[in-house]
Amino acid sequence: MGHLRLGRFTHDNITAARPIRGEAALGWFAHYAAGVVFAAVLLAVWGIEWAHDPTPGPALRVGVATIAAPFLLLQPGMGAGIAARRTPRPNVSRLRSLIAHISFGIGLYASALIFASVLPG
Fold first, then answer.
1. What is the pLDDT of residue 68?
2. Closest Cα to residue 23, out of 36, 37, 5, 49?
3. DSSP readout, 72-109?
4. What is the DSSP letter of 70?
5. Which residues of the chain, if any, have pLDDT below 50?
6. Terminus-to-terminus CA distance in the chain, angstroms?
7. pTM for the complete prediction?
8. Are 5 and 27 spatial neighbours (Cβ–Cβ below 8 Å)?
9. Measured between alpha carbons, how far is residue 33 from residues 27, 57, 94, 111, 116 in Å?
10. Amino acid 78: pLDDT
11. Which of 1, 26, 47, 85 is least crowded, fewest Cβ atoms below 10 Å from its Cβ?
């Protein structure tokens, strides 16, 4: 993330990139901000009604759909190629990403259940 402001969008190998001061905090902020945006997409597509009576399907669909971000943006930008194809064990990387994003979908659903219990109406 720190290299974006310098006009650098991709790296051959992110571990060889020059460190940017505060980049870890910036990266985590961007990661959580993306999560908030994806949660907003869930509500935009399925409506606020879903938040009042959540079901797992929409949350899991959004969670799985978010796999496009690391496969098409993050991993290629860090030098790992599309869907981690340039890593030593691409299928392991893909599976880990999928598990993480399914977990995000589960978290969206669990959060909605909690909020539904306290939302009026």
1. 96
2. 5
3. IIIHHHTTS-GGGTTSSSHHHHHHHHHHHHHHHHHHHH
4. I
5. none
6. 41
7. 0.84
8. no
9. 10, 23, 22, 16, 22
10. 82
11. 47
